[in-house]
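hey
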């Protein structure tokens, strides 16, 4: 069923309809908004409107988000590390480089395709194109994901995430030495006003809270334990950049700084690592059927552990 959203124009500042919706719907790209308008899915004061139509305070806007066309997903024999298997859910340790589900620019070779090859039931509560997927990790982030096998488990797990009852701990290697050694970042996140594939700290964004604590300090880096209380897109990456300590290897959010390293051998180690230094290490939640408290851990991948050893040898 198509999703329906109703808005009332506030403080329009003489904006065009498309630009006003960009402000009100930061999670939507400019192109997506223009497609909705062109397709007649946006009603301004009860009538279809053009993108260039000026909006006025008090104007009602109704947006119908059409369902995407059904997508045929074919199982692919991609190796997966299954940490836990249960009739209600899987816990998977996702490798860096694996996209979680099909989307723009990636139709095959995802975690979803690999899950289908395991056989058995996967939930469809999150949509037919994302079977089993309750939450996500960025492509270059490694670590733990819980995957629902039944719709009832999916609803239970999603409710736990929504209520902030799931403990999510990450290991992150960031640039610089952080002081103080622990802190809390409470900064709302929204779509970047120019680079629409990125997120940014924005006053009009959605609430986002990240807590961190230093685990180990190096000459030019700090290894952090990070806990996220909300699950916004790119949350840890944007918050670390906001703090002035971007994650090593994060080319989108200021983490590509290897040229600043004077130690040639160390520079080579970091360049060889060549990816985002972020790992989802621990997940804690209640069993979706029994309510039993559960805890899962995934050790650092070999390349991440090797990088830390190299840093320890050059203190």
């Amino acid at each position: 069923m198509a999703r329906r959203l109703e808005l009332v124009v506030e403080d329009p500042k003489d904006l065009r309809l498309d630009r006003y919706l960009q402000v009100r719907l930061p999670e939507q790209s400019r192109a997506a908004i223009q497609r909705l308008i062109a397709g007649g899915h946006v009603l301004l004061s009860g009538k279809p409107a053009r993108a260039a139509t000026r909006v006025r305070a008090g104007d009602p806007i109704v947006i119908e988000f059409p369902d995407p066309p059904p997508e045929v997903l074919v199982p692919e024999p991609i190796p997966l590390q299954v940490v836990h298997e249960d009739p209600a859910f899987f816990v998977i340790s996702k490798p860096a480089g694996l996209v979680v589900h099909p989307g723009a620019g990636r139709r095959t070779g995802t975690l979803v395709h690999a899950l289908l090859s395991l056989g058995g039931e996967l939930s469809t509560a999150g949509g037919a194109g994302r079977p089993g997927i309750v939450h996500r990790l960025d492509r270059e982030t490694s670590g733990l994901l819980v995957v629902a096998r039944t719709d009832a488990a999916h609803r239970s797990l999603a409710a736990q995430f929504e209520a902030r009852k799931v403990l999510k701990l990450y290991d992150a290697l960031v640039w610089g030495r952080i002081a103080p050694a622990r802190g809390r970042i409470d900064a709302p996140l929204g779509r970047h006003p120019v680079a629409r594939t990125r997120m940014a700290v924005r006053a009009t964004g959605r609430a986002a809270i990240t807590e961190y604590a230093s685990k180990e300090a190096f000459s030019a880096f700090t290894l952090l334990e990070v806990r996220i209380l909300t699950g916004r897109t790119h949350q840890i990456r944007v918050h670390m950049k906001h703090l002035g300590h971007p994650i090593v290897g994060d080319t989108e959010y200021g983490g590509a700084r290897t040229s600043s390293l004077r130690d040639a051998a160390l520079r080579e180690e970091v360049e060889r690592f060549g990816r985002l230094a972020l790992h989802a290490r621990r997940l804690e939640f209640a069993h979706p059927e029994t309510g039993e408290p559960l805890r899962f851990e995934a050790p650092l991948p070999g390349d991440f552990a090797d990088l830390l050893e190299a840093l320890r040898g050059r203190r």
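Helices lie at 17-24, 30-38, 111-117, 151-162, 235-243, 264-273, 302-312. The chain has a mean pLDDT of 92.
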